[in-house]
Amino acid sequence: MTVEPASSARPLSAPAPRAGAGPAPGPAAAHPPGGRAAWLAWSIGVSVYVLAVIHRTSLGVAGLDAADRFGIGASALSTFSILQVLVYAAMQVPVGLLVDRFGPRRVLLLGVVLLSTGQLAFAFSDSFGPALASRAVLGCGDAMTFISVLRIAARWFPAAKNPLVAQLTGLAGMSGNLVTTVVLAQALHSEGWTPTFTAIALLGVGVFALVALFLRESPDGPSAAAPAARPSLGIARQVRETWREPGTRLGLWIHFTTQFPGNAFGLLWGLPYLVEAQGMTRAAAGGLLTLLVLSNMSFGFLFGRVLSRTARARMPIVLTVIAATALLWGVALAWPGGHPPLWLLVAVVLVMGSNGPASLVGLDYARARNPVERLGTASGIVNMGGFIGTMITLFGIGVLLDALSPPGADTYAASAFRWAFCWQYVPLAAGTLMILRLRKKLAAVPA
Question: Dihedral of the CA atoms 171, 92, 59, 254 (nearest 10)?
């Protein structure tokens, strides 16, 4: 396997200034202090991201309940997650620009308001239309969290720690997924739809107060945290110049290709696949979804430690994760009768746990090739990738499930799931080809 040029091993968030790239980063950006104050600021910011993941993944354990409540099939059910992800992806560049210009603290506060409003509306929705609109609002709030936390980390931590902190951010977010699979799934059955989703919405009150009262987004205060508030580039030019960076485009396709298999499984189709196609109980299926979260957290810590030591590990990690995911899903889907053994399902889930952490490698490429005043915009562009891939996968599986099942069927057969899940190989192949193409182009462009 070809390794990257030695120049890629330089600090990941401090590229050399370019002509026309805007003002040089200030002292806070050049020499972030790290230490306890940095971890405190990151912890407050990441609490919003944890909350966002709880909201985002709540439908993953409520998919069957939602189908019964709203009287909808697989295609309509997938529309919930598709719209939420579509809004999330569409908001990434605007949110990146907002973070660059106004700072992450204000963006996080707005995100909490939108998350809570959307989830509260979802709790009281009893028909498909209002519920769909509420998930769109939720997706908008969700979009404002991750990029903001990364920007806080870039201001507080030394450049060499950025890959580790990014992975720890993803790992912390998975704790929100753990809350969903363990607590929310049980609450839905014991307390019911409206009380459960109302309680989740009200969590935002405490998180809003925490951010408003205690978050410092930069060691030198708000003015240093948003250098782009002193505009040097128009919005269109900032987006254009960020996109021209080969590292930004490569980062997007890495994020696209590595994230969507685990994302689509955890957000919506994992529980129906395990219960309806594999005949597992809800408790057993919930256990596998919990294993997915724990695997994600473990890989996040592992990749973070490796990448903080050497940037040369980035592409080997990405290609290994893609190959392992494709191989194990291929074996599971080709298993005679469409009912793979439990050990193989466990292996698939464990490997999918590497998908989210591998997708964050795309953000490392973007940080390495963009100046600090464009980091929010670059992160937004890259962060679109995985959610576009997720949206394509959610929709494709839903449409194929309906097409392969008898009209009016209450459940979907194992054979329908088997062929519908083969759809994953379409975005997987397209994304891998783009990664290989842009990898060569990046190696030919001086850092």
Answer: -60
**Residue the block writes with tokens 């990941």:** 12
Q: Two tokens at 122?
A: 């979802």
Run of H or E including 221: none
Residues 6+ apart with CB under 8 A from 67: 73, 77
Alpha-carbon span 75 to 86, nearest angstrom: 15
pLDDT at 406: 79
pLDDT digits over 240-267, tens only? 889 988 999 999 999 999 999 998 998 7
301, 164 contact by CB (below 8 A): no
Q: Which two tokens stand for residue 402?
A: 């309906």
Instruction: Pick the closest to residue 114 from 136, 96, 97 (CA basis).
Output: 136
All structural domains of the chain, each given as residue ranges with its CATH number in brackets, are: 34-444 (1.20.1250.20)
Torsion angle of alpha carbons 135, 140, 143, 148, nearest 10°? -140
Q: CA-CA distances (angstroms) from residue 112 to 141, 172, 209, 381, 395? A: 6, 17, 10, 22, 27
Count of other CB atoms within 10 angstroms of residue 42:
21
CA 10 to mean position of chain CA atoms: 26
Treating both helix axes as pointing N-terminal to C-terminal, what angle do 314-334 and 425-444 enclose, rounded to 10 degrees? 160
